[in-house]
Structures are given as structure tokens and as C-alpha cells.
């Protein structure tokens, strides 16, 4: 294995934190995609690239996670740094210590924090109080790291993103919100099909449409999944019962049933359409087993790309503010 640096020049013209995709410029989204692809290629070739030696990332999760937690932890290790998983049940937050005090203390020890929580205002408070970068690892409203890595997957499978037609079908949730924000940054055509009352957040759609005017993208909402999926290059769905919505289960299962991503619905998409799901999936609810495990599905490549995009995010946000010493060269 060789230790290598990446080519390119960093322009750190972005905010301290990564809370939403809407706050990132289209140029920076493009840069993250390039960096993630480079990091993926390096890992494939067995090249060691460790610009974050000496850095420590904290992960503070109030909800369960497989992909986000493991890809951030593994990614941090691969970049030469370390990570600490901080369950809220085990730190003094659970006994009433404030976010402000915890954030200011952790900023003295750590170099970055990934927060997974419920209300989006909570991650905003962390970001406001911490002096280190805060990365949103999912809130009820957004899942920006997922959406950025999904762009990498779509680009790998479909080529240049501008004009690629994405259909999102099902619950207008955190994943759909961030996906819309990400897709308009790169000029994609987005069709969203949700039942009335389960649409993506209207404020997010409005802001995305403004961005779309600049990038040539579009965002269309419909209640008809067949209209959304027609001639789509990418068909995406997510769970109907997101974490924290468990009490709404029986109502959601009934209302969202016509939005299942099944073989019949997929027939309306392009013959070479890819099927995406951020996982975890519930076969027989939002997607059939045949579609999730079928020839159109790219969900495992999609899950893998979380690692590569997470690493790009760590390199960008953590090394933007600090020069780490180690055998690896800093990318700049
Ligand atoms: N897609 C995703 O964020 O998965 P986890 O909940 O397992 O992190
Ligand atoms: N919408 C889902 C995504 C899980 C990764 C949830 O919030 O539970």
C-alpha cells in the first residue's frame, strides 16, 4: 500500500457545519462528488490516504443507525483519524446537562461532531453552540449525507446528472426533502408522488424550485405514482414509518399502500431505470422483495457510496479548519 495525496486545490468557501444540502453551492456539490469518486478509486486501488491523522470525530446519535454510523466510523479510520460513538443514554445529556454546555465541552476535545436526532432545531442548536463542524447525520426534516452520496450513485449509473429524471414515490420525509435539495443543485428533473398530507415540506420545495431555476432542474409534485414514474431514469422510495413515527403506523400503512414500489409501478419507468432505497427497507410495505432484490436495484452500491461520500465530507469539513500532522499529506 502506498500513502498518497489527492490532486486539486481546496477552496474552503463553505460554512462551518453541514446541516442541509440547500446550504451548499452547486460548485461545492460538484467538488464533493469529484472528491468522493477519487477517494473511492483510491480505496479500490488499496492506496492509503490519511489526511486526518490526529483528528477525532464524535458521533452522537439519538436514533438507531447502521449505515451512517458505520460509514462515518470506518471512513474516519481510513482517513487516519479516530471516532467516538456517544450514545445519549451514556453521557450527562440524559441527566439534564444542556446541549450548550455539552457542545462547548466536546468542542475542546473533538474535531467534528455527527449528530442524529429528531427535531431539526436540535442539530441547529448543536451547530450554534459547538465551535467545531457539526454534520447532520439525519433529523426528522433532513438527511443531507444520504442525498449527497445518492448523487454519486446516480452519476455512476447514469452519467452526467443534468437532465436525469428522478421519481421519488411514497412518504415525503427527511430523505425526500434532502434528495430534492440535492437533485436541484445538479439540474435533475424531479417528480415526487405522495398522498395528500404526506408531501415533502412545502418550504423546502419552494426553495428548491428557486434553485432549480438557476440550474435547469425542476420539481413536480403529484398524488399519482404512475405519473411520477413515467419514463424515469431513477425510481426512489423510502420507508413509510420513519423513526419517531411509530405511533402513526396503522394510518400510514393504509394511506401509503397505493404508493408501493412494485413490479407494476416500475414498468412505467425507463427499461434501464435504477431502483434506489436508502435502507433499511421493509419488503412488502414501501417496496416489494422482487423490486428491492431485482435487476434494477442498486441499493448495495448506494449503501457502499455512503462510505466514500462520508469520507469526502470529513476531508472537506474537518480539514478545512485544521492542519493535521501525520504521515498523510493534507489535500490543499
Ligand atoms: N440510510 C441510513 O441512513 O441508514 P442508517 O439509518 O442505518 O444509518
Ligand atoms: N426516513 C427514514 C430514513 C432512515 C435512514 C427515517 O427517518 O427513519
Hetero compounds: phosphoric acid mono(formamide)ester, norvaline
Unreliable stretches (pLDDT < 50, length at least 5) are: 1-12, 325-332
How many domains, as an integer?
2
Q: Could you spell the SSE succession in H and E letters?
A: HEHEHEHEHEHEHEHEHHEHH
Through-space gap between termini: 22 Å
CATH architecture of the largest domain: 3-Layer(aba) Sandwich
So how many helices? 12
Kindly describe this structure.
The chain is α/β, with parallel strands linked by helices and 332 residues long. It has two domains: 3-142 and 306-321, Rossmann fold (3-Layer(aba) Sandwich); 146-303, Rossmann fold, CATH 3.40.50.1370. 41% of the residues lie in helices and 13% in strands. The chain has helices spanning 26-45, 67-78, 99-109, 120-129, 144-158, 174-185, 202-215, 225-229, 249-256, 263-266, 289-292, 299-319; strands at 56-61, 82-87, 112-116, 134-136, 165-169, 189-193, 218-222, 234-237, 274-277. The strands form two sheets. Strands 7-6-5-8-9 form a five-stranded parallel beta sheet. A four-stranded parallel beta sheet has the order 2-1-3-4, with helices on both faces. Helix 4 (120-129) links the parallel strand 3 (112-116) and strand 4. Helix 2 packs across helix 12 and helix 6 runs parallel beside helix 7 (202-215). The two termini are 22 Å apart. Phosphoric acid mono(formamide)ester is lined by residues 65-68, 138, 146, 278-279.
Amino acid at each position: 500500500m502506498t500513502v498518497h495525496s489527492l490532486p486539486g486545490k481546496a477552496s474552503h468557501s463553505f460554512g462551518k457545519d453541514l446541516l442541509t444540502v440547500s446550504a451548499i453551492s452547486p460548485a461545492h456539490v460538484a467538488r464533493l462528488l469529484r472528491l468522493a469518486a477519487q477517494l473511492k478509486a483510491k480505496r479500490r486501488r488499496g492506496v492509503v490516504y490519511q489526511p486526518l491523522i490526529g483528528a477525532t470525530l464524535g458521533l452522537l446519535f439519538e436514533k438507531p443507525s447502521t449505515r451512517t454510523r458505520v460509514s462515518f466510523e470506518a471512513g474516519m479510520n481510513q482517513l487516519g483519524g479516530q471516532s467516538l460513538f456517544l450514545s445519549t443514554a451514556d453521557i450527562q445529556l440524559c441527566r439534564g446537562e444542556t446541549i450548550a454546555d455539552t457542545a462547548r465541552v466536546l468542542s475542546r476535545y473533538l474535531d467534528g461532531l455527527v449528530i442524529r436526532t429528531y427535531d431539526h432545531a436540535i442539530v441547529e442548536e448543536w451547530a450554534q453552540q459547538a465551535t467545531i463542524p457539526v454534520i447532520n447525520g439525519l433529523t426528522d426534516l433532513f438527511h443531507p449525507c444520504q442525498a449527497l452520496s445518492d448523487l454519486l450513485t446516480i452519476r455512476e449509473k447514469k452519467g452526467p446528472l443534468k437532465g436525469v429524471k428522478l421519481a421519488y414515490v411514497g412518504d415525503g420525509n427527511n430523505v425526500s426533502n434532502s434528495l430534492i435539495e440535492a437533485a436541484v443543485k445538479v439540474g435533475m428533473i424531479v417528480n415526487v408522488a405522495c398522498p395528500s398530507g404526506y408531501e415533502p415540506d412545502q418550504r423546502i420545495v419552494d426553495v428548491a424550485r428557486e434553485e432549480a431555476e438557476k440550474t435547469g432542474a425542476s420539481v413536480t409534485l403529484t398524488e399519482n405514482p404512475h405519473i411520477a414514474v413515467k419514463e424515469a431514469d431513477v425510481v426512489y422510495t423510502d420507508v413509510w414509518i420513519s423513526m419517531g413515527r411509530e405511533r402513526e403506523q396503522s394510518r400510514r400503512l393504509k394511506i401509503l399502500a397505493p404508493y408501493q414500489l412494485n413490479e407494476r409501478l416500475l414498468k412505467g419507468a425507463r427499461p434501464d431505470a435504477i431502483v434506489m432505497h436508502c435502507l433499511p427497507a421493509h419488503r412488502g410495505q414501501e417496496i416489494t422483495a422482487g423490486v428491492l432484490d431485482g435487476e434494477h436495484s442498486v441499493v448495495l452500491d448506494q449503501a457502499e457510496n455512503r462510505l466514500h461520500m462520508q469520507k469526502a465530507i470529513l476531508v472537506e469539513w474537518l480539514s478545512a479548519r485544521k492542519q493535521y500532522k501525520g504521515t498523510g499529506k493534507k489535500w490543499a
